[in-house]
Amino acid sequence: MAFVDFISQLHTKTKRNYIERMAKYDKAHCAQIAKKLDKEYWDGERKYGYGGYYYDGRWKKVAGQMKKHYNLSSGQKVLDIGCGKGFFLYDLKSIMPDIEIRGIDVSEYALTHAKEEVKDFLDLGSACNLPYPDNYFDLVVSVNTLHYLYLNDLKKALEEISRVSKGGGYIVVESYRNEKEKANLLCWQLTCECFFTPGEWEWIFSEFGYKGDYSFVFFE
């Protein structure tokens, strides 16, 4: 288990008005809407989520780095938990046409509006009950998804990741290192249920038997 950062290059480029989201809008109402993970969350107003989640090729660089770091090769299998509209899998497939991909997400809206090229590889379902065989995937990826779960379900999800993986895993979750980042996270988040420091996340990973790699998103 090791800290590996592929994500900060994307996350730190995003501009956020933390105070506006907390003070200007009815934050509780926005969170209720966002947690439906429907059109408003993906393609509605920014106060409900992404404000329009469209393909722009940003995951291609990350996919290339993962290919190199995990020494991925043709015929290997990669699962993306919380795949959304399948943009990461599309970019991975574009640089590795012979790799086998699979994605799973709880949002029917996201899967319906996914990239057409990967729709046939995406499943509707939960990280807590993955519909795949034991030791099936060479790499299991989950970016900005598992912090949506309560602790008991987080345990199930991490156990499921370990079950379906041959050993390779990469998880990214939201975290904070100081009070400023904690305040920014609380202001900005809409769907998170888990709020932990890096040390607490690492303890949870170890306690629940996860042996793959991980990284964090910080709201600086």
Helix fraction bin: 25-40%
Query: What does the average pLDDT come to?
Result: 94
Secondary structure class reads alpha/beta
In sequence order, what are the helices and strands, one letter per element? HHHHHEHEHEEHEHHE
Fraction in beta strands: 5-15%
Main pleated-sheet profile: 6 strands, parallel
How large is the count of helical segments?
Answer: 10
| SS elements, strand count | 6
- How do the strands line up in the largest sheet? 3-2-1-4-5-6
Pick out the low-confidence regions.
none
**Shape-level CATH architecture:** 3-Layer(aba) Sandwich
Shape, principal axes of CA atoms: globular
Describe the fold and architecture.
This protein has 220 residues and is an alpha/beta fold. It has one domain (8-17, 59-218): 3-Layer(aba) Sandwich (Rossmann fold), CATH 3.40.50. It is 37% helix and 15% strand. It has a 6-stranded parallel β-sheet, sandwiched between helices. Helix 5 crosses helix 6. It is globular, with a radius of gyration of 17 Å.
Chain-wise SSE layout:
Blueprint: H1 8-11, H2 18-23, H3 27-34, H4 39-43, H5 59-69, E1 77-81, H6 87-95, E2 100-105, H7 108-112, E3 122-124, E4 139-143, H8 151-164, E5 169-175, H9 179-188, H10 198-207, E6 213-218
Parallel strand pairs: 1-2, 1-4, 2-3, 4-5, 5-6
Helix pairs in contact: 5-6
Q: Can you tag this structure with a few keywords?
A:
220 residues, alpha/beta, Rossmann fold, 6-stranded parallel sheet, 10 helices
